[in-house]
Amino acid sequence: MIRQSLKFRKTLTIICIVALLIFIFLKLKQDKVYDIQIAKEDQKSDDVQGLSYRDFNRQPKKDIPKEESIRKMETKIVGDNTKQELQEAKARIEQLEKKLAVLEGRIPQKYPEVKYLGYKHRKRILVTGGAGFVGSHLVDVLMMRGHEVIVVDNFFTGRKRNVEHWFGHRNFEMIHHDIVNPLYVEADEIYHLASPASPPHYMQNPVKTIKTNTLGTINMLGLARRVGAKILIASTSEVYGDPMVHPQPESYWGHVNPIGPRACYDEGKRVAETLAYSYAKQEKVVVRVARIFNTYGPRMHASDGRVVSNFIMQALQNLTITVYGNGKQTRSFCYVSDLVDGLLALMDSSYTLPVNIGNPVEHTIEEFAVIIKDQVPGCRSTVATGAAVEDDPQRRRPDIAIAEKHLHWSPKISLQEGLQRTIDYFKEELSRTTFYNNQTYMDANVKLLH
Ligand SMILES: NC(=O)c1ccc[n+]([C@@H]2O[C@H](COP(=O)([O-])OP(=O)(O)OC[C@H]3O[C@@H](n4cnc5c(N)ncnc54)[C@H](O)[C@@H]3O)[C@@H](O)[C@H]2O)c1
Fold this sequence. Notes:
Elements: H1 2-49, H2 64-106, E1 124-128, H3 133-144, E2 148-153, E3 172-176, E4 189-192, H4 199-204, H5 206-227, E5 230-236, H6 263-283, E6 287-292, E7 295-296, H7 307-316, E8 321-324, E9 330-332, E10 334-335, H8 336-348, E11 355-357, E12 362-364, H9 365-375, E13 383-386, H10 401-407, H11 415-431, H12 444-449
Parallel strand pairs: 1-2, 1-4, 2-3, 4-5, 5-6, 6-11, 7-10, 8-13
Antiparallel strand pairs: 9-12
Helix pairs in contact: 3-8, 5-6, 7-9, 7-11
This protein binds nicotinamide-adenine-dinucleotide.
């Protein structure tokens, strides 16, 4: 009986196991069919959108189309925005490429030839006002002689364009700085030229003109003392004022109205000279003082109100040439390369007192107007007189005996030759209409001589 009962239990267990196995098999088969169905759905959705994204969370079938359409819309909006952004970026890149081409065109590929100087002979030279008319010509010569040149300028009347042919040269450095504030650089020599020079410019801000010539000069003399540099101060024939002595020797003390419209410049320069000799006496600074007479040449400001630039611009445009006053006042004009040679000779000399540097050939302003008119081909201008200028000096001509004796210097460029070069320069300036024909001027003779 017991044996029979055991056999029955065994059979029941086997039946249960077999039934369980069949159930498991059927269940697995059903799952596999469902998986294949879902995979087919996914495949369809991927085909439509071309995306590789797969939803592993198996959302209910009825939600799939809704999500898909949202996704589609989002993709379209993002696509449109991206397209627009791309187009904008393309336009901006094109703009920048054009700008870059212009800027690259302005950087000289080839610098004027520069002499190589060994470290024993190469000096580090600071030129204040080096982006101005005279300063930029001086910089050209110093660079071509192989020195390291630092230009300091606040661009009040100077222009980067005057020195941009040196940008990037390893011997050249440009500092945008107002010399009324202290400056800390190292230098062996300083040419201190920073100051507006033409009456409309220095009268525009008389207080600033005095500050530049007094505080600015103190700063430069202080720098010279600190670094042990030799310093040349660019003074002016204006220290003689409306002179009572003719021609003017350096020993003449001058005749200046201390409260007139030109006083900010005239007295500013007189104080600059006093400061130079005070630093020389008290602080043992090695100073040179150049009393510069009227100078002209390329890179003068076309609208600086000075005789040469005024007359040439008027003659080139067939406008009336205006002579202020009766035209009997005299001036003597020195070509800029002669002045630069004089400044270099003075710096290298051992002469410590002020030296006149200018051209002693004297003309009345009236004569001068006619000379310029005749030298501009086809000029149809007439010469007319205007109201006299207050405190305008009546006679101006340098006595250059000291420069001849101690510097072995005298001007070489004739008025006719200098005027021709200047007229050519202004002609070029007038014809300049775009950024592209903005070539910088470089004196061909300076290139040849140095
Ligand atoms: N050109 C002449 O006929 C003449 C005559 C006599 C004296 N000078 C003297 O020669 C020097 C140069 O004259 P220029 O004709 O070349 O004049 P400019 O105006 O062309 O040059 C003067 C330069 O000094 C810069 N400058 C002015 N104030 C400055 C400041 N506070 N800090 C830094 N830079 C400053 C200007 O931006 C400019 O680049 C001046 O000191 C001037 O008094 C010139």
